[in-house]
Design brief:
Arp2/3 complex 21 kDa subunit ARPC3, about 180 residues, mainly alpha, globular, 2 strands
Length: about 180
């Protein structure tokens, strides 16, 4: 990799990391119903990182998890944030191999939906693992896990992807 490109990636990684840490603390629009939580724009730094590289994505996800922890969110929400490593890294690897995906509306929409599904499965699994260790009754949690966390994550993820893609394409035009 050329030194200039490497410096650009490191700069983007630093900026996205800072944003990912700050969003859980300062974003005014957030809804927390543990284990579900919805913070508008919380996935945007992750998606922007995915458009750059897998290593930037992994770093931003770790920072985002730290941001949720530092903001005092319930630990199950922090685990959900850490579960983003699954969809984020897979998505970044896919985009590295098929960068044209985001250029075609249909392929981008399909990519967004599949990523949302993987994202939701990862978050539900994080909750299931967390609650199986704590001894929580799963029958009481079915609605919360599969409707609020599962379905809610798909919708939230897809919205944040569109926001991130719009930002990315706008910045790319300026460069």
């Amino acid at each position: 990799m050329k030194p200039k490109k490497r410096i650009q990636e490191m700069t983007f990684a630093a900026l996205l990391t800072a944003i990912a840490i700050l969003i859980p603390s300062i974003m005014p629009i957030k809804l927390i119903i543990p284990p579900a939580s919805y913070t508008l724009g919380s996935h945007v730094p992750i998606f922007l990182a995915m458009f750059i590289s897998p290593w930037v994505t992994a770093f931003v996800i770790l920072a985002s998890s730290l941001g949720y922890f530092m903001a005092g969110y319930p630990i199950v929400v922090v685990f959900r944030a850490f579960s983003h490593i699954i969809f984020g890294f897979l998505g970044a690897l896919y985009l590295k191999k098929f960068p044209q995906t985001i250029e075609n509306h249909k392929s981008s929409l399909l990519f967004n939906f599949v990523l949302g599904l993987i994202h939701a499965i990862g978050e539900v699994l994080a909750c299931v693992i967390f609650y199986s260790v704590t001894g929580e009754d799963f029958q009481k949690l079915f609605y919360v896990l599969f409707v609020l966390v599962g379905f809610g994550t798909i919708v939230h993820s897809m919205i944040d992807y569109v926001i991130a893609l719009t930002i990315f394409k706008s910045i790319r035009k300026i460069r």
